[in-house]
Amino acid sequence: MAEIFDWLKNPPERGQRRKSGRAKKSIPAAHLRQPRTQPPVMVRGTLNGAPLTARKIGKTKTRRRYDLTLNVPGAEMRLPALPALAVGPRLVSGLLVLALGFMIYYLWTAPTFQVEAASISGLQRLSRSDVNAVLDIDGEPIFAVSGRELEQKLRAAFPEFSSVSVQVGFPRQVTVSVVERQPILTWKQPDRTVLVDANGVSFPQRNPAEPPPALTVEASGPPPAVVNTALVVEEQNLVVDSSPFIPVEMVSAILSISAIAPAGTPLIYDEEHGLGWKDAQGWDVYFGDIRDMDMKLRVYQALVKALQKEKIQPALISVEYVHTPYYRLER
Which domains does the chain have, with CATH numbers? Predict the structure, then answer.
């Protein structure tokens, strides 16, 4: 009772009563007001002089979810979600690069495309093993074989080939067709012996057992320099350069002198006196070039008769100049 009288004597203020009343009430957590979140704000320009960087938002890949139904009614099993794979240009490019790399490796190493030996036609004095040794294409992939390079190698190694043609075909065919030069004389000088064809091109005698041409020229030195340094032959739009060893005019002169020389007499050549032959009576006779050959022969025969009449044994007779023939007792 005393407390009631005290309250009546000193009543609380109105605002205090409301405040205390409110404090006594319990508000559920669900009804409490949540703090409001500020919406995203995009600011252009700078803030206090410092540029703002935009935040990159990564793309989220959609994942596929799979639910597996069990035998128990109302029960399911959720499987792990799998990412959805998108086939883009990078994936396609990578697969193409891998496929092309594998194809190149297979074509380069497969026995189906590796050359064993070339098929060669037109050989007369050379063997196929000699030509294949120079080609050196055994085991090479057909894609690395160049027909033009092989032709150049054969011409450089075998000057006796007047023409060379190399055809390359799939899967591993290499066909070589050649034409060999026909030697008409043998040129012998102190440092070398070669065969010579009608165009003056020289080449070595590969097979020692092969009989040489019947015509032989014994020279004391090299032949005169060739004026035309290249013989150009066009076959199948291909230019072949061959350097003659003897001028063509000199080859014709040798053939002409051999026709009038005594049978079995070897021809000779000297850088100073030109062409001639070794006479069976023991001297050398020189005619120079083939100009006025009939007149030179008559002068030579008349000079031989005069020397025999005088019982003179010359060592050299020269009728290079028809009007001034001479002889020597010593070479």
Answer: 99-180 (3.10.20.310), 181-331 (3.40.50)
